[in-house]
Amino acid sequence: MPKMLLLYLHGFNSSPQSVKAQQISQWFQKYHPNIKLAVPHLAPYPTQAWQQIEAIIAEYGEYQIGVVGSSLGGYLATRVSQQLNCPAVLINPAVKPYELLVDYLGDNSNLYTGDSYTLVPEHIDELRALDCVQLTHPEMLWALLQTDDEVLDYRQAVEKYQASKVTVEQGGDHSFVNFERHFNDIVTFLAFNQI
User: Fold this and answer.
1) Residue 195 covered by a domain
2) Are the C-beta atoms of 57 and 83 separated by less than 8 Å?
3) Residue 18 domain-assigned?
């Protein structure tokens, strides 16, 4: 029986304490306790965050990995998926976060931890460097989108992931309303149901 790891990547200014991170962690612990969970608190700086992700991947090198990422976490999950050729589910993913985060240059504080940090232009460059401009394994991606996302234009993701599985729901918001409805299908897509 293969060892399996669910890697959940939260969004910008979020944390493992976010509603979605908590929902998916609790559900997997209840219904799939044999699947290892990794829900890191990602650094606010792109290169550091990516190094955290690489360290987890290295630590669980013998595991079958499935990734779920929300917003900026979806952007990073795309890179993980395309580098490892592993499945990833993207929740209202950021397509061009390096354009959005220009508005956050300067001092910020994490909504969950209160930790302060400062974004500078070099961090935007770091974020752009992590972009997967060409999807080499689009079939490994499933984008879950809601049209009333108040932060991101869902149509960017429709275009970016046109060769992937895409689910567009009318209404909702950036948090992705009723995310938990998709958990069983996420298990199937991540090929975690083969155990």
Assistant:
1) no
2) no
3) yes
Signed CA dihedral, 44, 46, 51, 57: sign only:
positive
Q: How far apart are CA 132 and CA 122, in angstroms?
A: 19
Residue 194 lies in a domain: no
Tell me the pLDDT tens digit for each residue of 26-67: 999 999 999 999 999 999 999 999 999 999 999 999 999 999
The residues, ordered by sequence, that sit 6+ positions from 142 with a Cβ below 8 Å of its Cβ are 87, 88, 89, 90, 164, 165, 166, 167, 186, 189
CA distance 109 to 118: 8
Cβ neighbours of residue 66 under 8 Å, at least 6 residues apart? 4, 5, 6, 7, 86, 87, 88, 89, 189, 190, 191, 192
What gap in Å lies between CA 83 and CA 85, rounded to an integer? 6
The answer as to whether 22 is a domain residue is yes
pLDDT digit string, tens, across residues 5-31: 999 999 999 999 999 999 999 999 999
The pTM of the whole model exceeds 0.90: yes
What's 31's domain CATH number?
3.40.50.1820
Residue with tokens 């752009």: 128
CA 56 – CA 170 distance, rounded (Å) = 35
